[in-house]
Amino acid sequence: MNLTLKIWRQSNAQATGKMVDYKVTEISEHMSFLEMMDVLNEQLINNGEEPVAFDHDCREGICGMCSMFINGEAHGPDRGVTTCQLHMRMFKDGDTITIEPFRAKAFPVIKDLVVDRGSFDRIQHAGGYISVNTSGNTQDANGIPISKHAADEAMDAATCIGCGACVASCKNASAMLFVGAKVSQYALLPQGQVEAVDRVKNMVAQMDLEGFGNCTNTGACEVECPKGISLENIARMNREFLSANVKS
Amino acid sequence: MSVLDSKVPKGPLKTKWTDYKNHIDLVNPANKRNIDVIVVGTGLAGGSAAATLAELGYNVKTFCYQDSPRRAHSIAAQGGINAAKNYQGDGDSTYRLFYDTVKGGDYRSREANVYRLAEVSANIIDQCVAQGVPFARDYGGLLDNRSFGGVLVSRTFYAKGQTGQQLLLGAYSAMNRQIARGKITPFNRHEMLDVVKVDGKARGIIARNLVTGEIERHSAHAVVIASGGYGNVYFLSTNAMGSNATAAWKIHKKGAFFANPCYTQIHPTCIPRSGDYQSKLTLMSESLRNDGRIWVPKNMDDVMAIREGKKKPTDLSEDERDYYLERRYPAFGNLVPRDVASRAAKERCDAGYGVNATGEAVYLDFASAIERYGKEQAKIHNINNASADKIYELGAAIVKAKYGNLFQMYEKIVDQDPYKTPMMIYPAVHYTMGGVWVDYNLMTTVDGLYCIGEANFSDHGANRLGASALMQGLADGYFVLPYTIGDYLSHEIRTGKIATDTPEFDAAEKEVTDKINFFINNKGSHSVDYYHKKLGNIMWEKCGMSRNAQGLKEAMVEIKALREDFYKNVSVPGTATELNAELEKAGRVADFLELGELFAKDALEREESCGGHFREESVEMGGEQAGEAKRNDVDFAFVSAWEYKGEPGDAVLHKEELEFNEIELKQRSYK
Amino acid sequence: MSGFFKSSIGRKYAMALSAFFLMFFLLQHFAINILSVFSPDAFNEASHFMGTFWAVQYVLQPVLIFGVIYHFVMGFILEARNRSARVKKYAKNNGAANSTWMSRNMIYSGLAILAFLVLHFIDFWIPEINTKFIDGDMTGLLPNGEGFRYYEELVHKFENPLRVGAYVIAFIFLSLHLMHGFSSAFQSAGATSMRKEKLQLFAKVYSILLPLGFIFIALFHHFNH
């Protein structure tokens, strides 16, 4: 199929940037979206132009590096996938596809479609861990039985790949689904209880400091999340946050 | 006497590690504060090592090319992690894990290292659970296990189909704690481009800030390389797009020997290639072989009909199908080790029985598993005379619970429903057992330079068992390196801060800058990918699942010629002072173009079949094992460690003879 | 608890709490208004009680006014903050693909309700305060002294079709606001998903029937008098 691409080009963080039109031809419907981008870039390089910079790595939907906003949706029109798993069969011959970087004040553009998601890392530095040293004499793994239900729920929260689609989709650029998932994973496990109060307070404080917006429960994040992280995690974070503030 | 000293401690195998730990020199906490360690790569090995070293009190700097340590490719491991916990009471033990790993590795690994790995495996699970890794549990709240290829016990711990991600997030969380304390300084979007040696010791690295293009100098008292494997030398592999051998190759060029480069694991269950535009291959977890049955049609007519779309795989009756693994290996069936399964698939496809348009695909069928589970469920729910539809429904639900995310992934990529029609799979490059040579301390042949995880060669011999890569990465990082490096650093307490304004750093930086400027100014006519794809093609055709002397010799010549063409005609757009993905790739492919040649040389040298390395000249000629790989323990029971001498083709071979005191060498049989 | 209400989540709770209060108030307001359809006398009795009972006038009324103002002011503050969290807008944003129109436009439905409240204050509240506190007439009787004035005033207001039209439109916006706001408040307050599922039907009924009821009252009086 032949396609018109409207792509955000911005040479560096300070530059103003603009949308630029490109044409690609003979795209197979079996290609992944990023393979289509590879075709475009190969074409640009052969024409002596600068290829489009975009983040990508594992190309199997787990590293969370790819981050395009395609036709008005994070990771494009398909559900439950990242951009690297989006396939061209979702589009039709002759389509015009708009490709933009994830946009948020807390995700500044580095170049073209590449954004800086360091704010996610800093939120996790603030409390996304359990303080346990690597001694080799930690308690036996079966020492504390954990109900299957709690373990499964913690796992569901832990499947977050930190791609930032929640922030990109949210009309308020809120990071609450991400932070909610991180808080929930630990809140659901007995190992996480000891530091629960400080964890949720510190992570929320860092989230606010980074300049993310506030959640207004539109649910867009849950729909666009490639891993199907549930809004329930935000509600749980709210409960954890309230009880942490009541306790101290 | 070889120049290689494995430094394996004396004494009985079972107490070596404990005795070793009891007698090494330690660094007192006050002195640790004055010692810097650089860790390159933040996957399971690098991340866990960085966190543990920082916990101990060293000042750690981590480097990764991704935007966050959490994205390292360890994250993509699906199936699980082995540990000799024997929670299932099925006869597992440290010894059995040790034995299975050595046997699975086709007797080409170091006994002492593997035993240590098996010994600390149980600690890994304890540590991860304490960190909040949500492993799968059963209804009693205890940890669940599954079984993997090549073994007869259930010792694999898992977190859905995302075990790698969960373990990496555990290591990353441990890092976060140390970053918050200021003990780890993370340098993300940075790539190490050379190691700096001062007086023969590793004293720092040269790194490029991938966002600004700035070349940076970083000094330390020891450097740890944990940059993963070199599978991307094949262009198409299950590795991440950015996975590269640059750090490992640069240290090789500075004196670290490179061991067994030809040991590559071709994973049997990947989604087949669909076209020339393909940028990477996707793995379907080996755990699928627990329930999936692998087959191709028995008759060539059916193969043709399927390829032309005239028949569907489900149209074929049981006796029209060739379940070739069950036929050839009745004892292990579909659960033979990876190398055996891959070669068997290649054998069928080479014979013309491949079931897709490219002729490179076999079926992985869940129909009988769905039926078996369905009947079991019907019994559990007291449904008598359940209809076929009901049985299918009940069975599919169980299969979904076990492999749902994998099935969904397959459907997204291939656009076929694996519940209704068998999956198509084909082997793909997955893991490299070879890597930088290290001694028992995980130190390379350069003092103060360590190598851990997939980047080193150590524990898997010629073939790695499923769910053992995660185990090795975390064992190295959490439980081995922090001890062994302490022994070395105890002699560094008087060294003081290492300056970066020295001639050694100047020289290393100049070398890096010159190379970058060369690429930018070359203005050739072909993109970097053009060369990478060509290299991949040579590697796959001539150094792939089966190799012969003729092909390997050709490969060496072709790769050398391709490398020369690359330096003449490669084109890198943009500048050196910005985010420039093409420039990054150029540097990595330049290294692959050298590594590939050494790979072929090593494969040529090793005139035996062992593990992932299959030489067509070395097969069993008769008896029950006819046609199977034939190992040669008399001439080749050694580790090939290559010393760099200017050109990959000129590398000098050093042999570390392997001694087996605990395990009797046997030809592997999965019949 | 220091800093709780300065945090993003603290403010969510505050929005949710004021919303709960306002939703309860609406229910109560409706319950009295609907009496006017069935029995002018009952309506008059109830109105007089609400208009003169001290606890309502001096405790609940200030709380209500505070609640209304707080909900609006905080709504504006959050909207401003949320807008600043994305400086550069998307060239193409397909919000309809992942969220409802109501959820994305709370600020507009809210502004429509605010505009209505101004009208409503001018229509009822200011004359009421004027009569009671400026003129000092606390009797609640008509100028001619023949019975309570509340019902007559109500009927009189709904004579003008433009006003009735404005009321109808405003209540449509109220319905849209509630369709997202009702369950959103529960989500913000941290209700578990199980509880939210049970609330779903109630939320729908409330956010459609209640505004519809108000519209019915306005139309009823417009066409019956």
Automatic annotation (TrEMBL), chain A:
Chain ranges passing through the membrane: none
Record-level GO BP terms: aerobic respiration; respiratory electron transport chain
Span of domain 4Fe-4S ferredoxin-type: 151-181
Gene3D superfamilies xref list: 3.10.20.30, Alpha-helical ferredoxin
Family stated for the protein in its record: Belongs to the succinate dehydrogenase/fumarate reductase iron-sulfur protein family.
NCBIfam families: PRK07570.1 (NF005746)
The protein, known as: Succinate dehydrogenase / fumarate reductase iron-sulfur subunit
Organism: Maribacter ulvicola
Automatic annotation (TrEMBL), chain B:
GO terms of molecular function: electron transfer activity; flavin adenine dinucleotide binding; succinate dehydrogenase (quinone) activity
Classification via SUPFAM superfamilies: FAD/NAD(P)-binding domain, Succinate dehydrogenase/fumarate reductase flavoprotein C-terminal domain, Succinate dehydrogenase/fumarate reductase flavoprotein, catalytic domain
One Gene Ontology term, aspect cellular component: plasma membrane
Catalyses which reaction(s): a quinone + succinate = fumarate + a quinol
Record EC number: 1.3.5.1
Compartment(s) of residence: Cell membrane
Main location: membrane
Keywords in alphabetical order: Cell membrane, Electron transport, FAD, Flavoprotein, Membrane, Oxidoreductase, Transport
Keyword Transport: yes
Highest taxon above the source species: Bacteria
Topology of this chain in the membrane: Peripheral membrane protein
UniProt-annotated catalytic positions: 338 (proton acceptor)
Ranges where the Fumarate reductase/succinate dehydrogenase flavoprotein-like C-terminal domain occurs: 532-670
Segments forming domain FAD-dependent oxidoreductase 2 FAD-binding: 36-470
Keyword field contains GTP-binding: no
Family: Belongs to the FAD-dependent oxidoreductase 2 family. FRD/SDH subfamily.
Entry protein name: succinate dehydrogenase
Organism: Maribacter ulvicola
Automatic annotation (TrEMBL), chain C:
Keyword Nucleus: no
Transmembrane segments: 55-78, 106-126, 164-182, 203-223
Any one GO CC term of the record: membrane
Keyword Transmembrane attached: yes
Protein keywords: Membrane, Transmembrane, Transmembrane helix
UniProt superkingdom: Bacteria
SUPFAM superfamilies in alphabetical order: Fumarate reductase respiratory complex transmembrane subunits
Protein name (record): Succinate dehydrogenase / fumarate reductase cytochrome b subunit
